[in-house]
Amino acid sequence: MNPSTRVERLLARMTLSEKLGQLQIVFRPRLSDAAQLVRDGIGSVFWPRSAASVNALQRVAVEETRLRIPVLVGLDVVHGQRTISPVPLAQAASFDEALVEQLAALAAAEARSGGVTWTFSPMVDVSADPRWGRVAEGFGEDPHLTSRLGAAMVRGYQGSALSEPTSIAATAKHFVAYGQPEGGRDYNGADVSERRLHATYLPPFHAAVDAGVASVMASFNTVAGRPMHAHRGLLTGTLKQEWGFAGVVVGDADGVRNLIPHGVAADSPDAVTISFDAGLDVEMGGLVSEVEAAVRSRLDHRRVDDAVTRVLMLKESLGLFDDPYVDAAAEITAPSAPARALARRAAARACVLLKNDGTLPLAPARRVLLTGPYAESTDHLGAWTQSFGAPAGRIADAFRARYPDSLVDVVPGTGFFDGDDADLAEASRAARAADLVVVLVGEPSALSGEAASRSDLRLPGRQEELIAAIAASGTPFVVVLENGRPLVVADWIDRAPTVVEAWHGGTEAAWAIVDVLSGDEEPAGRLPMSFPRSVGQIPIPYAHENTGRPATVRGRMELHSADIGLQGPDNVQEKYTSKYLDLDLGPQFAFGHGSGYTTFAYEGAQLSAGAISTAALAEGATVRLDIDVVNTGERDGDEVVQVYVRDVLASLAQPVRRLVAFERRAVARGERARFRFEIGADELALWMPGTGWIVEPGVFELHVGGALDRTTRVDLRVV
Ligand code: NOJ
Questions:
Q1: Is 646 helix (H, G, I), strand (E, B) or coil?
Q2: Whose CB has fewer CB within 10 Å in the chain, the N or C terminal residue?
C-alpha cells in the first residue's frame, strides 16, 4: 500500500473516534437520521436515494465535520441502476465478456450520476446448488466463466479510473465459499476442502483482485466452522498478504453482529474485535459506534490505522476529496434510448435455446395464443433491483407490436402460484383454436435472490399442468421460461419440443423475448449452470471428479465416465457404480448446453505442438489450439466455442471436464471462422494441497465444441 501524503497527514490528525467512524457503513439509515450520523463521523452510508440527498450528506461531511472527509455512498447496484439488465446468471449465459463489461459500465454511469460511489457487486461466488436463491446474482457453477465475467464486470464498473464521473468502486463478494451452503439454504455453513477452496471458490476472487477490484465483501457463511467475518487466515492471509489486496474488506450486512449467534463471539464488542483482528476494514451496520467505548482499548491500533488508510485511499481514488458532489441536474433518472437498446440486446443474448423442433424462429401465424403467467406480467426485473429501476413491459404488448397482422389472444391459464380448473380449461380451448401457442411460464423474481432458497425446483403453482394442457391440444407450441435459477423440468420437458430459457431479463425483457421468438435476435446463449433432473440429484456439477466407479451407459453420458472400460451392454448400467437407481445419469441439461438458429461444424482442430515441457509452462509458454468453425446452416449466427480439459492421469482425482477457455463470435452463413486459444499453465494446472498450483506431466485431453456433448478432441502431452 502506498498512501498519498494527503492520506498520511489526515491519518496522523485523526482521533481514534474519528478513525472508528470511517470503519463502518450504516445500512439504510432513516432520512431523518442520516445527516446526524455523518455529522457524528460515520464514513460510509448505504443510501438508496437521489443525487440531491447524496449532495446534502456530502455537504454535512465536508462542512460540518472537523476533518472534512467525504462519505462513501454504497448501494447494491447488481444488474443495473435505472436501466435493469438481465440478472447476472443470465448475463453469464451470454458467454459474452464485452457485453457484461458494457452493462456494468452503464450501471456505473447511471449510479454515479446519482452520487453512488460504491457498489456491492459483482457476486463471484461459484454456485454449486440451484436451490440457493442467490445463484441468480452470480455467474453460475464454473470457476473459469465466473472469473472472466467477474473481472469483466469489475472493469465495467470501475472504468479507466475511479475518479471518472462514470465509475464506481466494485466489490467482489461474498468471500468465500458462500456458493456452497449446505442444503442450498442461504446463510448456511460451507465445509470445503482446501483443494476445493483453492481450485473452485478462490479463483474468481483472485481474478477480481487482479482486475483491480476496489473492495471485497466477507461472506455470512462459515468455512470449516469459522465464520468468514472472523477468518484471519483467508481475509488477511490469503487475500491481503498472499494476493496483495490493498483495497477495502467490507463486512456483509450485520455480518459482524452475526458472530454472536454463530457462537464465536460473546457479545458485540467481542464480535467487533474479532472481525477487525481477522482483517475486516469496514463493518456494515453501524455496530462499531455502538460499542466504541468497549472496544477502544481492545482493538489493535496498527490494524485500525491500516483499515482507515484503506478507506481513505478508496475515497481519494474516487476523487471525493477533490469534489464530493455530483451535478444533481445531470442525474440520470430514466434509461436513455441507447441504454434501452443495450439492455434489450443483452436480454436476447442471454437466452438459451434448450431445444427446438424447428418451430423457432416463428413463422408468421394467423391466430396466436399467448398463455402462462408471464404473458401479461411485468415481473421481469429479477432478484436485485432498487425501487427506482425502470419497469419492464408486457410480452403481450411487445408481441402484438411485432406481429400486427396476427390475431393475438391472451389467456393466462394460471397465475404463478394459483389457478383453477376453469382457467386451465379456457387456455386449453383457446390453444385448440390457435395456430400457434407461446407458453410463458417461470418463477417470479421474488423466488430467487437473497433468502430465497427453494426445496422444490419445479415451476410453481399449476404451470406444469398448463404446459401439459397445451401439449394435449395438439397445436404447435413454444415454451419460454423466465426464472433466476436452474429449474427441474423433468415432468414436462419431453412433451415440449421447443423451449427457450430467457431468465429474468430486466427492463427490456419483453421486447427481447419477442426479438428471439421472431428471429430478429438469436438465442445463442449457453447454460452457465446445469439443470438437474431432480432435486435429489443436487449437486450435479458437470466438472465433478472421477469416481472409482463411474456410471456409464454406452453411447450416452460418456461424460460421466472416465472411459476406463466399465461400460455395460447398451442401456444397461453396471450395478456397483455411482448413480441413482431411479434417475438417468447426468443432469437434464449440462453446463454449456444450448444451440441457436443455425448449425456449425468443427474442422481441423490442431495444436501448434503436440507436447510441451513443465519447464516451458513454468516460464509462461503456451501451446496454440486452432479450430475452424463453419456455419453450415441457413442463417447467420453466433457460436460459443468452449474448450474443456481433462487431465487423464494425475496425483489427485481430476474433474471429468473443466472449462478453460471460451469465445462467443458471430459467424455468417456459409462462412468459416478460425478460433484460437492459448493453452498454458493456467489451463493445465491442478491445486495440490500444501504445494499450490502445479502442472503434472501426462496426457491432457482438450475437448472443443459448442456444448459438452458435441466436442472434438485433441491431446496435448506435458513432458
Ligand atoms: C446482504 C447481502 O448478502 C449482500 O450481498 C448485500 O450487498 C448486503 N446485504 C447489502 O444489501
A1: strand
A2: C
Q: Give the domain CATH number at 621.
A: 2.60.40.10
For the record, the C-alpha cell of 111 comes out as 449510479
Quick check: 298 and 320 in contact, CB under 8 A?
no
DSSP assignment letter at 553: B
Residue closest by Cα to atom 11 of ligand 1:
76
- Residues 556, 609 share a domain: no
- Return the amino acid letter for 566: L
Q: Could you tell me if residue 594 is inside a domain?
A: no
CA of 263 to the centre of ligand 1 (A): 21
Q: Is the CB of 186 under 6 A from ligand 1?
A: no
- pTM for the structure as a whole: 0.97
Percent of all residues in the chain with a pLDDT value above 90, rounded to a whole number: 93
Assign 24 a pLDDT band (cuts: 50, 70, 90).
Answer: very high
What's the alpha-carbon Rg for the chain, to the nearest Å? 26
Residues 405-419, mean pLDDT to the nearest whole number: 97
Question: CB-hemisphere CA count at 13 Å for 641?
Answer: 25
Q: 120 CB less than 6 Å from ligand 1?
A: yes
Residue-wise pLDDT for 209-224, tens only, equals 999 999 999 999 999 9
Nearest Cα residue to atom 9 of ligand 1: 253
Co-location of 142 and 174 in the same domain: yes
Q: Is it the case that residue 561 has pLDDT exceeding 90?
A: no
Last-in-domain residue among 562, 586, 610 = 586
Q: Domain containing 686: what range?
A: 600-718
Q: Which has the higher per-residue pLDDT, 637 or 549? A: 637
Q: Is residue 497 located within the same domain as residue 581?
A: no
Is 137 a pocket residue for ligand 1 (Cβ < 6 Å)?
Answer: no
Same domain, 282 and 379: no
Q: Are residues 570 and 664 in the same domain?
A: no
Q: CA-to-CA distance for 231 and 714, rounded, in angstroms?
A: 43
| Dist. CA 78 → ligand 1 center (Å) | 10
- Give residue-wise pLDDT tens across range 75-86: 999 999 999 999
Q: Is 252 a catalytic residue?
A: yes
**Among residues 96, 252, 306, 409, which one is catalytic?**
252
